[in-house]
Design brief:
The protein is α+β, with helices and mostly antiparallel strands. It folds into 2 domains: about 270 residues, 3-Layer(bba) Sandwich (FAD/NAD(P)-binding domain); about 150 residues, Elongation Factor Tu (Ef-tu), domain 3. About 35% of the residues lie in helices and about 15% in strands. It has 13 helices and 16 strands. The strands form 5 sheets. It has a 6-stranded antiparallel beta sheet. A 3-stranded antiparallel beta sheet has the order 2-4-3. It is globular, with a radius of gyration of 22 Å. The two termini are about 25 Å apart. Its main location: cytoplasm.
């Protein structure tokens, strides 16, 4: 998705582009064809509501920028309520045909196994980056900055957490500043709540690894249900240990267990549940995690999981235009940069293609506006996210800067989302005006 969109955008700006595609000569366990833009999971681009949904807003911005992926999706749209779902095979055939027909484009079918020292390159290899290229990226960036398995903890919108039950405190009040001493959000459990939580965790439906993506767990990212299977007290002595914490709502009562959440973005609008990577199915996750005091009405920006997903620690490796800091002739785009989903991947391809073409043409551009959906995503992956806990992210309104004067919480959500989308559309249209 990302490579196809990047190539389309750059070619439309007058740049000669070569797409290097290793399939079908070099296969992956997930792909079935050599088509560009092949969909290997869902056939949905999710919500198409550009006023109340961040994904729908991203659709709108891509359409405004003459996006190939959105045009092909519209051409092969299937009935799906308010979502944009497509007939996947003709969709990929259309993407491939339109790219091959473009006078500024050609496709070369071979595997790229090294990071070139010269020329302008965009690497949009997705979650199934080949082993040889993965090794080359590791050599350039450092092994610790490229993840091959994605241990994802759930992320929750801050304004959906009940602060009459939760509180902010770092364990043992550690930290030099007040911000550090209150860096974690804590949700307490008594013994009965903890035992019921463990029962639900053990009984929940779990997903299994797909063929080709199995891997032994390492202790740093054990799924919480695997820890619970090792003993009912394991979690209470691991990520749910209650020591060093005092509940200001009930200072005389010692919690039996405590679930901690850590801020996940610079705005403080998103929190991830510390140590809660999981292979529970999505429906089970929402049921089980809403048993946690303070999270009964939690809204999830992302649910947890562990799966094959090659991605960079982009906040440390990429600059604000998605260039590799150590090799600025190379850009990365798509899921390998730490975005999640077809739409987000294609959107980052769109930006990479335009930014690369502008650089080649000598066009000076202002930064991608942070108040657009595109800008919120690129800001998150290149600096807005916490580098130590960076994990792939879908677009969501938690990545957007607040609009002054609008109330938080569920009751004000409709007006708040409309304000976000109105502001984003203005910002995006203004930025697109910089392209001749």
């Amino acid at each position: 998705m990302a490579g196809s969109e990047a190539a389309w955008q750059a070619a439309h700006m007058g740049i000669k582009v070569v797409i290097h595609e290793m399939r079908p000569k070099v296969e992956t366990f997930a792909h079935q064809t050599g088509n560009l833009g092949e969909m290997v999971c869902s056939n949905s681009f999710r919500s198409d509501d550009d006023e109340q949904n961040a994904v729908g807003l991203l659709h709108w911005e891509m359409r405004a920028a003459n996006g190939l992926i959105m045009a092909a999706a519209e051409q092969h749209r299937l009935p799906a309520g308010g979502a944009l779902a497509v007939d996947r095979e003709p969709f990929a055939e259309t993407v491939t045909a339109r790219l091959k027909a473009h006078p500024n484009l050609r496709v070369s079918y071979e595997e790229i196994t090294e990071l070139p020292d010269d020329g302008h390159w965009i690497f949009a290899t997705g979650p199934l980056t080949s082993a040889a290229l993965g090794e080359a990226i590791q050599r350039e960036t450092g092994a610790e900055r490229l993840a091959f398995f994605d241990a994802i903890a759930p992320i929750i919108y801050a304004d959906s957490i009940d602060m009459s039950k939760a509180w902010m405190q770092s364990r043992y009040d550690k930290g030099e500043t007040e911000e550090e001493r209150t860096a974690y959000l804590n949700c307490p459990m008594d013994k009965d709540q903890y035992e019921a939580f463990i029962d639900a965790l053990l009984a929940a439906d779990k997903t299994e690894f797909h063929e080709g993506e199995t891997a032994g767990y390492f202790d740093g990212c054990l799924p919480i249900e695997v820890m619970a299977e090792r003993g009912r007290e394991t979690l209470r002595h691991g990520p749910m240990k209650p020591v060093g914490l005092t509940n200001p709502h009930q200072p005389d009562i010692k919690a039996h267990a405590v679930v901690q959440l850590r801020r996940d973005n610079a705005l403080g609008t998103l929190f991830n549940i510390v140590g809660f990577q999981t292979k529970m199915k999505y429906g089970a996750q929402t049921d089980v995690f809403r048993m946690i005091p303070g999270l009964e009405n939690a809204s999830f920006a992302r649910l947890g999981g562990i799966h094959r997903n090659t991605f960079l620690n982009s906040p440390t490796l990429l600059d604000s235009e998605m260039r590799l800091r150590s090799k600025p002739n190379i850009r990365f785009a798509g899921q390998v940069t730490g975005v999640e989903g077809y739409v987000e991947s294609a959107a980052m391809g769109l930006l990479a293609g335009r930014l690369a073409a502008a650089e080649i043409l000598g066009q000076a551009l202002p930064p991608v506006p942070q108040d657009s959906a595109m800008g919120a995503l690129i800001h998150h992956i290149t600096g807005g996210a916490e580098a130590k806990t960076f994990q792939p992210m879908n677009v969501n309104f938690g990545l957007f800067r607040p609009v002054d004067g609008l109330k938080a919480g569920r009751r004000g959500r409709k007006d708040r989302y409309k304000a976000y989308t109105d502001r984003a559309k203005d910002a995006w249209q203004s930025w697109l005006g910089n392209f001749s």
